[in-house]
Write a structure and sequence with these properties.
Layout (H helix, E strand, L loop, with lengths): L3 E3 L8 H10 L5 H6 L1 H14 L3 E7 L16 E7 L3 H11 L3 H32 L3 E2 L15 H7 L8 E2 L5 E2 L3 E9 L10 H4 L13
Helix pairs in contact: 1-5, 3-5, 4-5
């Protein structure tokens, strides 16, 4: 049950995903984005330099999560914390302090897309490892979404020494740096559904820019 650190990989920050994030989060209209295409391109280049993907994970029984009963009956889980590092967040603050609000908003969106790309990359590793054993993985579940209380971030951080990749937990269970993601997946021949099929509709996080409102 020794934690594994991943830090020798890169991720692609897709421009269309950044645009979707901005549009769905009501940060900008499609017309505004087209008018500021140059700023978008510059922000993507800047993000590519600032993003430092890192992750730490452990494969363990669900009952290994301290003080939690949510996954107790599941024999094999992957628990993970990953991040893009603090550099992009610091640059966003610098831009905000200089009143370069457009640049700051687009760069922040690029950071959110990058963080999701890091989590997806590591999730893909779990899928590959499981497939090599004839197994499958569930969809990702994260503290604060669905039935998994955000307070169980403390349990996850008790299991994983996330400080080794530069991620800390605030008293309110928010991760620092902010562009970090924690999650778990179930590994089994028939993995359980860790969140509902219609998780966007059932999730109570109103500010999520990836919320799907039209079906």
């Amino acid at each position: 049950m020794e934690p594994v650190i991943l830090d020798k990989f890169s991720v692609k920050i897709a421009a269309n995903e950044v645009i979707r994030y901005l549009e769905n989060g009501k940060r900008a209209s499609s017309g505004q984005i087209k008018r500021f295409q140059g700023v978008l391109d510059l922000s993507l280049d800047r993000a590519g330099v600032l993003v430092r993907p890192r992750g730490i994970y452990v494969i363990a029984p669900g009952k290994s999560l301290p003080g939690s009963s949510l996954f107790r009956e599941l024999e094999r889980m992957a628990f993970c914390v990953c991040t893009i590092g603090p550099a992009l967040e610091k640059e966003v603050k610098r831009l905000m302090d200089r009143d370069q609000l457009l640049e700051a908003v687009i760069l922040d969106a690029a950071g959110s897309v990058a963080a999701e790309a890091v989590a997806s990359h590591i999730d893909g590793i779990f899928k590959e490892q499981a497939a090599a054993e004839g197994l499958k993985t569930s969809c990702r579940a994260s503290p604060g979404y669905g039935d998994w209380d955000v307070g169980e971030q403390k349990s996850l951080f008790a299991l994983l020494p996330a400080g080794r990749i530069g991620v800390e937990l605030s008293p309110s269970c928010m991760m620092i740096p902010r562009k970090s993601i924690s999650f778990a997946v179930h590994i089994d021949r028939n993995p359980v559904r860790l969140r509902s099929e219609n998780s966007c509709e059932n999730c109570d996080l109103d500010i999520c820019p990836f919320r799907i409102t039209d079906r």
